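Why do we care about 3D structure at all? Because function follows from shape, and shape follows, mostly, from sequence. That is the central idea of this module. The next example makes it concrete: a single protein chain, its amino acid sequence, and then its structure expressed as C-alpha cells.
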Amino acid sequence: MDQEKAIHLLKESGALLKGHFILTSGLHSDQYVEKFRLLEQPYYCELFAKDIAEYFRNQNPTIVVGPAMGGILLAYEVARHLGTKMAFPERVDGKFTFRRGFQFQNTDRVLLVEDIVTTGGSLLEVIETLKSQPSTIIGIGLICDRSQGKAKFPFETYAVCTLDINAWKEDELPEFLKSIPPIKPGSRNLTN
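And the structure:
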C-alpha cells in the first residue's frame, strides 16, 4: 500500500485526529492516531495487516507477536494472513511477560508487530522479553511510524505509513497549542 492510501485510510477510519494530545511518552502533539478507530473496524485492520503480512511473507515467519492491547488485534490479523500462530505479551507489574501458556520453539521465526510507534519504548521492551524465548526475531511490522526516524530497532522494520507529526515537551509548546485544552488519549496514563 502506498503512503497516500495509508494516510487516507487512517483519516477515513477516524483514526487520525487533530487537537492537543498528551502522548504516552509525555510529549504533546497537535495530531494523534487513535489506533482503535482503525482496529475496531475489521475492514481497515485487514488492509494494514495484509500489507505487513505480504511484506514479510518471504521471510517465513512462524509466529506473529504483538504487545497488549492494540498489538493483539494486529498480530491476530497478520497471523491469519500468514497462516501462522500468534502470541502476545502483557504487562504484569509494569513489565511485559508471556502468560496464558504461549510457547516458543527454537525453530520459531517471530514477526513482531505494533500499531503506532512514537518513541519505540514498548517495542524495545517486548524485544527484551522475547530474548528469553527460544526463537528468532525476523522483523518488525508497524501500522504507523510517527517517530520521525527516532525509533530504531535492531531488526528489519517496515511501516505501512510514516507520519511526520510533531511532538513537543510541555515547556516547549508552540503558541497555537497552548490555547487548546490537552486530552490524554490511550490506555497508559503516565502523566498527571
